[in-house]
Amino acid sequence: MTAPPATWAEFWRDHDVVGDAESEADAAGFAPEAARVLALGREDDLLDVGCGGGFVLAALAPTVRSVVGVDGSPRLVEAARARLAGVGGAQVHLVHAARPGDLGAAAGRRYSAILCHSVVQYLPDVAAAEALVRALLEVAAPGARILVSDLVVADSRWADARGLLRTAWRRGTLRDAWARLRRARGSAYGAVRARLGLLAVDPTRLAEVARRAGAHAEVLDAPISALANRRHLLLRR
Questions:
Q1: Which residues in the chain land under pLDDT 70?
Q2: Using one digit for the tens of pLDDT, what is the confidence trace for 205-220?
Q3: What's the predicted TM-score (pTM) here?
């Protein structure tokens, strides 16, 4: 019998939160919001930290000059590379999941736009979240915009369920949202979340880390992602 994942990094080696169809639908809803908040344009070089299977990166690729993704799961890196195979110059790199501040090969250049979506809640502690924010700023070009999105402020599955339903109501996808919630109750993700929980971080604390590094920081309350209860951090270098 296979032992259950002991960490979130182990979970991502073999599992997903939802299937490809739902991931693609989530990306279709989130990508335009990310593009708007980051003010993406054809001259931007975009880095996606924690790119997963590359769904959001693939959706944003047509709006920018170049795209680079990094992820700590070998399985997801391969999936992202396959998904971006038709995007000229696209790169996806594997990084060490246990080192949030290490961006691997992606650290060799600077980016005008950086996205870090639905990553912080799976880190081991607040110190790791702070190290990640500093790492993002280190690879940011002058004038770069950085969006750290989907921040958990209180680890509550009920709050996430309500947030999902609020977004679904706005998008006209309530039936799909209810079906997702039913599947989540018996899923590997649901079991691991019940055991490990998610990292809740005060966004103002991460904002202060960015300010100490010389960046402008703004906490966003507007619903950007599929979970309307989550918060987001917009940084400018």
A1: 1-2, 18-19
A2: 999 999 999 999 999 9
A3: 0.93
Per residue, what are the HEC states of the chain? CCCCCCCHHHHHHHCCCCCHHHHHHHHHHHHHHHHHHHCCCCCCEEEEECCCCCHHHHHHHHHCCEEEEEECCHHHHHHHHHHCCCCCCCEEEECCCCCCCCCHHHHHCCEEEEEEECCHHHCCCHHHHHHHHHHHHHCEEEEEEEEEEEECCCCCHHHHHHHHHHHHHHHCCHHHHHHHHHHHHCCHHHHHHHHHCCCCCCHHHHHHHHHHCCCEEEEECCCCCCCCCCEEEEEEC
d(CA 146, CA 144): 7
203-212 vs 126-138: helix crossing angle, rounded to 10: 40
| Structural domains of the chain, ranges and CATH numbers in brackets | 8-236 (3.40.50.150)
pLDDT at residue 4, as a whole number: 74
Beta bridge partners of 235: 146, 217
pLDDT of residue 1: 52
Q: Cα separation of 1 and 41, whole Å?
A: 50
Nearest to 222 by CA among 209, 232, 234: 232
> What share of the chain has pLDDT > 70, as a percent?
98
User: Could you tell me the two tokens for 175?
Assistant: 């039936």
CB 54 within 8 A of CB 86: no
